[in-house]
């Protein structure tokens, strides 16, 4: 008896009970779709966290001066070093360089006063390097830097504390006795823990130096790499330039500067991603087990229910192999149909936002869910059939 | 029971058949040593009350069950020595079985049900269809070939089952209370089909507990408690002559 004919038997078997076949397909469909969608939702929320971390500026490096080092030369971070870092040739992976001076100051507006966390003096490129977006008004320009204009952009926390409901743009405030014009307010970034990144006042570097910090070395230099992948290359280039400028010997055990590559954020990101991976694994595992039990159940029931039919077929002289092949093909058809529809359902479902998260389908989860569900469907579709085919015909016929 | 002056190989020959269910003190001897020979073309009714072992005997004769001890020769072949796949072959080629509860495959047309033994025998679809239709015609149901079992009456279902049992031209037709679930009209239909088949030379063994049914047979065997207590041949009917 040819496999083709047995295939015909299997097709007739599937078509003979449309409700049972439909329920089996539905069971597998739900199992597969649930696993893929749950993993996609988890993956989507991990992506969301990653994106929000990226918004805080993960392609920036911060160079800080320090004491020590065995060079005997000047090791302060000077504007000369800033110029050297801006050199496209020796630092091709650097997008922008922003010197930063900062100090804690009290801001005054009319009778109100507010102790701002930090007044930052820098270049306009700092805005993009620190992912600071000007929400109203405007940022300052290179020209303002050249002219040491006394203009300031406030963080949203600072603006709210100082002005309340008044529109800050265009107002004049006092910083350590000097009058500054507020020309813009930054968009909210949200707190990342200890520091409120929204509690700042940003002004052109020379203005801050002239009125607040003096023309000494800058406290740090914020360097933006061309993209997240270039951070390591940019770091190497910066290290080379700084070593040359500060005459650090090759292989020196310590350097008079530190370069921090938003490592804390990266660590957080890694930790978050790891947590999510574990969580995803657990969710996917549980879904697979639950889906698998559902499939097992429906397959066992639908095949066990046909033990009598298997008995009749055996009584008519069906060889065991033919019965097994028929049920294996039936199980394969149902499993594949259910699995395929499940994948389709998951892919359609992934287009919608689920609990505020845009699901991102992982190809791995599709393969895993499909593989496990189809394997379970095949096993529990053919195992009871094989058991029934092994019975003596009279026992299978008497089976209730 | 062979025709006079003619050596014939019996269709079935059982010797000292024993079937025991359970073990030890609770053991039930469904068959306690049955010996029986049936010649080709014979028409045998096995009678007995419920629990007499007649169904057990039938299942063993149909190769659906195996005896605890004793030998069973079907068409000269010792069935007890066959393995699983050889037994499937025997059930397919040499035995046609009609059950009390019809046992048609649900949601499958009458034609497909009748074709089934031929399909398992590996016969080509076109030939299969032709033979199945001929078998259905023989039981008077050619016009119901496309009906599913649940669209047929009990008598029609049993006739389909008879068609299925004889479509593979078996040496032996076994019927386990074939009229047990039927009304008197359908009983008559089915029995007349069986009579016709026997008249064409088919060997038939049927189980019944109704005397009217047994009256159709040429030979009546009574079982009590797993033993044959009587084996009577109708006087008015001579043993059937069958070309060897």
UniProtKB/TrEMBL annotation, chain A:
Q: What's in the keyword line of the UniProt record?
A: Cell membrane, Membrane, Transmembrane, Transmembrane helix
Residue ranges occupied by any MacB-like periplasmic core domain in the UniProt entry: 21-241
Name one molecular function that GO assigns to this entry: transmembrane transporter activity
- Give the stretches traversing the membrane: 21-42, 276-301, 322-348, 360-383
**Recorded superkingdom:** Bacteria
Q: Which residues form the ABC3 transporter permease C-terminal domain?
A: 282-391
Q: What protein family is recorded?
A: Belongs to the ABC-4 integral membrane protein family.
User: What name does the UniProt record give this protein?
Assistant: Peptide ABC transporter permease
Q: What organism does the UniProt record list as the source?
A: Catellatospora coxensis
Automatic annotation (TrEMBL), chain B:
In terms of InterPro entries, this protein maps to: AAA+_ATPase (IPR003593), ABC_transporter-like_ATP-bd (IPR003439), ABC_transporter-like_CS (IPR017871), ABC_transpr_LolD-like (IPR015854), MacB-like_ATP-bd (IPR017911), P-loop_NTPase (IPR027417)
Q: Which residues form the ABC transporter domain?
A: 12-244
Q: Supply the Gene3D superfamilies for this chain.
A: P-loop containing nucleotide triphosphate hydrolases
Domain of life according to the entry: Bacteria
Looking at the Swiss-Prot or TrEMBL record, what is one Pfam family this protein matches? Answer: ABC_tran
Q: Which residues form a coiled coil?
A: none
Q: What do the Gene Ontology cellular component annotations say?
A: membrane protein complex; plasma membrane
Q: Which UniProt keywords apply?
A: ATP-binding, Nucleotide-binding, Transport
Note whether Nucleotide-binding occurs among the keywords: yes
GO MF terms here are: ATP binding; ATP hydrolysis activity; transmembrane transporter activity
- Which protein are we looking at? Macrolide ABC transporter ATP-binding protein
Q: Which organism is it from?
A: Catellatospora coxensis
């Amino acid at each position: 008896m040819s496999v083709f004919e047995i295939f015909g038997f299997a097709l007739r078997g599937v078509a003979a009970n449309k409700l049972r076949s439909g329920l089996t397909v539905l069971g597998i469909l739900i199992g597969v779709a649930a696993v893929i969608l749950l993993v996609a939702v988890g993956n989507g929320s991990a992506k969301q966290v990653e994106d929000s971390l990226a918004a805080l500026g993960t392609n920036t490096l911060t160079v800080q001066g320090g004491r020590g080092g065995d060079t005997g030369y000047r090791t302060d971070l000077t504007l000369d070093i800033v110029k050297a870092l801006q050199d496209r040739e020796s630092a091709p992976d650097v997008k922008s360089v922003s010197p930063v001076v900062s100090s804690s100051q009290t801001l005054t507006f009319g009778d109100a006063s507010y102790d701002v966390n930090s007044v930052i003096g820098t270049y306009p490129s700092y805005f993009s390097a620190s992912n600071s977006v000007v929400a109203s008004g405007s940022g300052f320009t290179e020209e303002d830097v050249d002219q040491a204009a006394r203009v300031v952009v406030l963080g949203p926390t600072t603006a709210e504390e100082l002005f309340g409901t008044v529109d800050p743009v265009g107002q004049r405030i006092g910083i350590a006795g000097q009058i500054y014009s507020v020309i813009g307010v930054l968009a909210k970034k949200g707190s990342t823990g200890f520091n409120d990144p929204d509690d700042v006042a940003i002004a052109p570097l020379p203005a801050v130096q002239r009125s607040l910090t003096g023309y000494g070395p800058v406290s740090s230099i914020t360097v933006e790499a061309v993209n997240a992948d270039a951070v390591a290359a940019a770091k190497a280039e910066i290290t080379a330039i700084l070593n040359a400028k500060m005459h650090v010997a090759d292989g020196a055990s310590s350097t008079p500067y530190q370069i921090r590559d938003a490592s804390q954020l990266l660590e957080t990101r890694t930790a978050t991603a790891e947590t999510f991976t574990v969580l995803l694994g657990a969710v996917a595992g549980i879904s697979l087990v639950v889906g698998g039990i559902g499939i097992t159940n429906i397959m066992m029931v639908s095949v066990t229910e046909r033990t009598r039919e298997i008995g009749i077929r055996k009584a008519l002289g069906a060889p065991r192999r033919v019965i097994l092949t028929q049920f294996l093909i039936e199980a394969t058809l149902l499993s594949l149909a259910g699995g395929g529809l499940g994948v389709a359902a998951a892919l359609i479902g992934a287009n919608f936002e689920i609990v505020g998260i845009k699901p991102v389908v992982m190809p791995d989860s599709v393969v895993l869910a499909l593989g496990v569900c189809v394997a379970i469907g095949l096993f529990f579709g053919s195992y009871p059939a094989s058991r029934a085919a092994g019975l003596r015909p009279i026992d299978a016929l008497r089976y209730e | 029971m062979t025709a006079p002056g003619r050596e014939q190989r019996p269709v079935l020959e059982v010797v000292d058949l024993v079937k025991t269910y359970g073990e030890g003190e609770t053991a039930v001897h469904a068959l306690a040593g049955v010996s029986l020979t049936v010649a080709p073309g014979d028409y045998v009714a096995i009678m007995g009350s419920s629990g007499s072992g007649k169904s057990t005997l039938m299942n063993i004769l149909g190769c659906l069950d195996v005896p605890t001890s004793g030998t069973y020769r079907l068409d000269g072949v010792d069935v007890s020595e066959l393995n699983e796949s050889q037994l499937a072959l025997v059930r397919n080629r040499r035995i046609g079985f009609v059950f009390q509860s019809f046992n048609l495959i649900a949601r499958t047309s009458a034609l497909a049900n009748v074709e089934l033994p031929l399909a398992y025998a590996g016969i080509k679809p076109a030939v299969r269809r032709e033979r199945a239709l001929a078998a259905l015609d023989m039981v008077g149901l050619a016009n119901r070939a496309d009906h599913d079992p649940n669209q047929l009456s009990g008598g029609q279902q049993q006739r389909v089952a008879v068609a299925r049992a004889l479509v593979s031209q078996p040496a032996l037709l076994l019927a386990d209370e074939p009229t047990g679930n039927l009304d008197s009209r359908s009983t008559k239909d089915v029995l007349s089909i069986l009579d016709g088949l026997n008249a064409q030379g088919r060997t038939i063994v049927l189980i019944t507990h109704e005397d009217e049914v047994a009256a159709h047979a040429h030979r009546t065997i009574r079982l009590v408690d797993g033993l044959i207590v009587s084996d009577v041949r109708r006087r008015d009917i001579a043993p059937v002559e069958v070309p060897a």
